[in-house]
Amino acid sequence: MRVMLLGATGLTGGIVLQGLLGREEVSQVVALVRHKLPTLHDKLAQHEVDFDRLEDQAELFDVDVIICCLGTTIKKAGSQDQFRKVDLNYPMKAGELGRSRGVRAFILMSAIGASSSSTIFYNRVKGELEDALRDLDYPYLSIYHPSLLLGDRKEQRTAEALGIKAMPLVNRLLIGPLDKYRGIEAQTVASAMVNEACHLAAEPADEQVVQTREYDEIVQLAG
Questions:
Q1: 203: how many CB neighbours lie within 10 A of its CB?
Q2: I need a surface site. Which of 75, 145, 189, 223 has the fewest CB within 10 A?
Q3: What predicted TM-score, i.e. pTM, was given to this entire model?
Q4: Is 39 exposed, middle or buried (0-12, 13-18, 19+ CB in 10 A)?
């Protein structure tokens, strides 16, 4: 199975990359990056691309599964328009190219609260992407809705750092229908994504599947 990975330089994407490289079901990982990763592996095919012109390299999308962990923050992007470009336009274009090349599955890391009707800009953009991917009619579409991602990031995010410190206590209070808002380790999300992709290699879907994964199901998929 050939898997394309978007967002390999991020917290979750980096863990997904290592997980995919270690699985025998995966013959090749096609990583689209702006700058080469330090990772060297026989299974890894890195391609430095202009994400504004992905259509120029449509042949790279001849894979079986796309896993998208691409994302940024408004602070890092510099503006809402740039945020939309990274979190909506790039994944949507990848989805369109993948579908046109016969990719059978798309696994997306979105966010809890994502909705195209949300009054919160971040959640609205995430929801717009989900709607766009659903409209592409992938045979298999899996959308992950993690809450706060826990793990060591390369960049400092003050608000998230404060939230991470408080999460052990907060998680104990989030029970029943509120457990979907629990903070979750990026390692757990990444493991679930890798396991799900590899499960598709063993048991391809016989009919169209659209799934939304929240806390409990992500933990279960991670094994």
A1: 7
A2: 223
A3: 0.89
A4: middle
Q: Is 152 helix (H, G, I), strand (E, B) or coil?
A: coil
Tokens 């509120």: give the residue.
178
In the set 126, 138, 144, 180, the catalytic residue is: 126
Annotation says 165 is catalytic: no
| Residue appearing with tokens 């923050």 | 73
* 86 secondary structure, DSSP code: I
Annotated catalytic residue 215: no
163 is written with which tokens? Answer: 């939230």
Asked if pLDDT for residue 161 goes beyond 80, the answer is: no
Rounded Cα–Cα distance for residues 4 and 78 (Å):
27
- What pLDDT, in 10s, does the model give residues 4-49? 999 999 999 999 999 999 999 999 999 999 999 999 999 999 999 9
Cα dihedral 73, 13, 43, 195 in deg (nearest 10):
-150
H helices present in 39-179, as ranges: 74-77, 80-84, 90-100, 121-135, 158-173
DSSP secondary-structure letter at 89?
I
- Rounded CA separation 104/121 (Å): 30
Catalytic residue among 43, 85, 93, 122: 122
Side chain identity, residue 58: A
Percentage of the chain beyond pLDDT 90 is 78
Residue 11 is predicted with a pLDDT of: 94
Query: Cα dist. 219→12, 77, 144, 212 in Å?
Result: 15, 30, 11, 13
Q: Would strands 44-48 and 65-68 be described as parallel, antiparallel, or unpaired? A: unpaired
